[in-house]
Amino acid sequence: MAKTASNRKKPTVLKRHPRSVVQRKNTTIPISVFGNVMKQFNAAARKLKLDKSLLEFIKMPRRSTIVKLPVRMDDGSYRMFTGYRVQHSIARGPAKGGIRYHPDVTLDEVQALASWMTWKCAVVNIPFGGGKGGIICDPQKLSEGELERLTRRYVADLIDLFGPDVDIPAPDVGTGPKVMSWFMDTYSMKDSRVIPGVVTGKPVTLGGSRGRPEATGRGVMISTREAAGHLGLDLSNSTASVQGFGNVGSVSALLLHELGVKFTHISDVTGAIYDPEGIDVQALAQHVKKTKSVVGFPDVKQIRPKDILYAKVDILIPAALENQITQANAHRVRCRIIAEGANGPTTPEADRILQRNGVMVIPDILCNAGGVTVSYFEWVQNRVGYFWTEEEVNRRLEEKMVAAFHDVLKMALDNRTSMRIGAFMVAITRVIDVVQMRGIYS
Questions:
Q1: Phi, psi at 74, each rounded to 5°
Q2: In the prediction, which pLDDT does 29 show?
């Protein structure tokens, strides 16, 4: 039943990590996430020594749309929301990327996320470009009816941007299968027929793919396993910490725990816990499912959330939001592997410090690409009208992620650079190759 204005429970406030700013003397300067992407791109482009005009062509978003959305609230009043949709590239295929509902959504962030999607799709070699969307709102302060009306208004106002061959949204922070169902239904009304391929991340009964909810976390596990093999690290005798025990963080932890990894530090937006003997990840997942918080889990010590990043463990999985590891705190990170479950958790300045300190960073555009890979599988299944078993989905995901990891590792080793720059080099090369074959219409 939808919550009304009078019976809503007190919302949980969604907060960004305090390290999303740079402190300089008496001023606070926000870190530009899109600026970080540009720095990463430029560092890889310099090593590739490609035609600068072509690099400029693929570097910037091709289209950024801002829309004002009037929505009727449960009390009968109207409220204006701001929405965004950015298409970064369609050179290799339709734009692909989630829709984020969060109070701190900005155009800068959405452009960055759309850019990362272009390079992510190219790294795992699937025929998509990059896109991303967002609405400035706190979904936990809206009733289900208000969320549905907001979603449908967003789709209706931007409907010409979307389509199975043009731009394919998916869930992101603050959205999920239910929002994708509303999205698909609203879009389908345009042609008076069901068009399941316009979004991915749908419920299985509406054409979603089996294995999709676990796909991003499974990709993190596969990437971490391959990195550990390269470094000679025995996972059955390794320790780990997770920042952000949501879908990605929890699935990553559960799957790595099955390989013998001991998780000693885990946090979410409500707090952080520690147990040197290892946290029972399965029991914690059940606790969080019931209480929506890691706080209150029995027989563990409560610690400061920021200490998660500085734990002395073998593997750190930042699976929260961007700009968590910065120039200000990177020197305090003491792990051997950082597996980026989140998008953009490490700034370019922090990358250089981590590389000097011998930390292997599995970059976001590789490490968390399992989600978009299975989204591609969902899109393929929608197009042919035939659906695979979960075992088949996982087998195909394994093949894609392992191949992508070793493509990036080879590029990084051959060019004596970091995994992040290696990943960007792989991605940029694949996009440039397509652009050169297609030519540029002018």
A1: -65, -25
A2: 55
Instruction: Note the Cα 230 to chain centre separation in Å.
Output: 24
296: left (phi over 0), alpha (psi -120 to 50) or beta: left
Residues 423 and 311 in one domain: yes
| Structure confidence by residue, pLDDT tens digits, 385-441 | 999 999 999 999 999 999 999 999 999 999 999 999 999 999 999 999 999 999 988
132 is catalytic: yes
Q: What region does 322 belong to: left with phi over 0, alpha with psi -120 to 50, or beta?
A: beta
388 in a domain, yes or no? yes
- State whether 163 and 137 are in the same domain: yes
Which residue among 59, 96, 120, 132 is the active-site one?
132
On whether the CB atoms of residues 408 and 423 are closer than 8 A, the answer is yes
Q: Give the pLDDT confidence of 94-113 residue by residue, as tens digits.
A: 999 999 999 999 999 999 99
Tell me which residue range forms the domain holding 138: 62-206
- pTM, full prediction: 0.90
HSE (CB half, 13 Å, CA atoms) of 114?
31
Q: Is residue 43 part of a domain?
A: no
